[in-house]
Design brief:
By secondary structure, the protein is of the alpha/beta class. It is 45% helix and 19% strand.
C-alpha cells in the first residue's frame, strides 16, 4: 500500500472543504489568506488523488482519503516515460514560418528548439508565434531562435520522474507542455529531448484510471 504524504496546507484545504463543501477555490484561498494561484498546485494534487472533486461554477467537494489510497497506486507507480508523447523538435535556425507549418501539420501546442548538436536550447508556443506574426512582415526571414524562450528559463522533466512531479511543474510554471529530457552525462547542463508531457496527456490518463 502506498502511503500518501500530504503537506500541512493540503490537510488544511481538506478540512475547509469538508466543513464548507461545495466551496470555490477563491474562498479556500481567502480562508488560508493566500492567493488563488498559490493554491493551484495543491488543488490539482488533491483532485488527482481523488480526495477532492470539482464541478465548474459550483466548487470543490470532499470525496474521501480511503478512495484516494485506492487510486493513488497507478499515479505513484507510473513514470513520465510510461505516458510521454512524441515531441516536435526543430532547429533554431529555421524560420518562424516553417515552425508555424510544423506546429499546425502535427497539431502541436508548442515546438522544442534544439541547437546544432540537437541539445535543447529553447521552446516556442503558439502564443509566441501569434505575437511574432502580428508584428512581422516576412516570417520566412525570422529565425525561430530570435523569438524562443531560452534555456535555462524552460521547465523540463526527466523521463524517470513521477506523474505528480510533472503535474505540479506544469501547474506552477503555467505551461501546457514540458519537454521530457535526458541529461548528457559528458556535458553539464546539456539535455536531449526524448519526449513531451502535456496537460492533455495527463487529463486522458486520469480519465482512463478513474473509469
Amino acid at each position: 500500500m502506498v502511503i500518501i504524504q500530504l503537506t500541512k496546507r493540503q490537510e488544511e484545504i481538506i478540512t475547509i472543504v469538508k466543513n464548507q463543501e461545495p466551496i470555490t477555490g477563491e474562498l479556500i484561498a481567502e480562508s488560508l489568506q493566500v492567493t488563488r494561484a498559490a493554491l493551484r498546485s495543491d488543488l490539482v494534487v488533491l483532485t488527482m488523488l481523488g480526495i477532492l472533486d470539482a464541478k465548474p461554477k459550483v466548487g470543490y467537494f470532499y470525496i474521501g482519503q480511503s478512495q484516494a489510497l485506492k487510486a493513488a497506486n497507478p499515479f505513484q507507480e507510473t513514470r513520465v516515460s510510461d505516458v510521454m508523447g512524441v515531441p516536435l523538435t526543430v532547429h533554431q535556425d529555421i524560420s518562424v514560418y516553417d515552425v508555424i507549418v510544423h506546429i499546425f501539420m502535427e497539431d502541436a501546442g508548442c515546438a522544442f528548439i534544439v541547437d546544432e548538436q540537437d541539445y535543447l536550447c529553447g521552446v516556442v508556443s503558439r502564443k509566441d508565434l501569434l505575437k511574432t506574426s502580428i508584428g512581422s512582415n516576412d516570417l520566412t526571414k525570422v529565425p525561430v531562435g530570435m523569438i524562443m524562450t531560452r534555456m535555462p528559463n524552460i521547465a523540463t522533466v526527466e523521463a524517470g520522474a513521477s506523474l505528480f512531479t510533472a503535474a505540479e511543474r506544469l501547474v506552477t510554471r503555467q505551461v501546457d507542455s514540458l519537454p521530457v529530457v535526458q541529461q548528457d552525462k559528458s556535458q553539464a547542463g546539456k539535455f536531449k529531448v526524448v519526449g513531451k508531457l502535456s496537460k492533455t496527456i495527463l487529463s486522458k490518463l486520469f480519465l482512463e484510471i478513474r473509469e
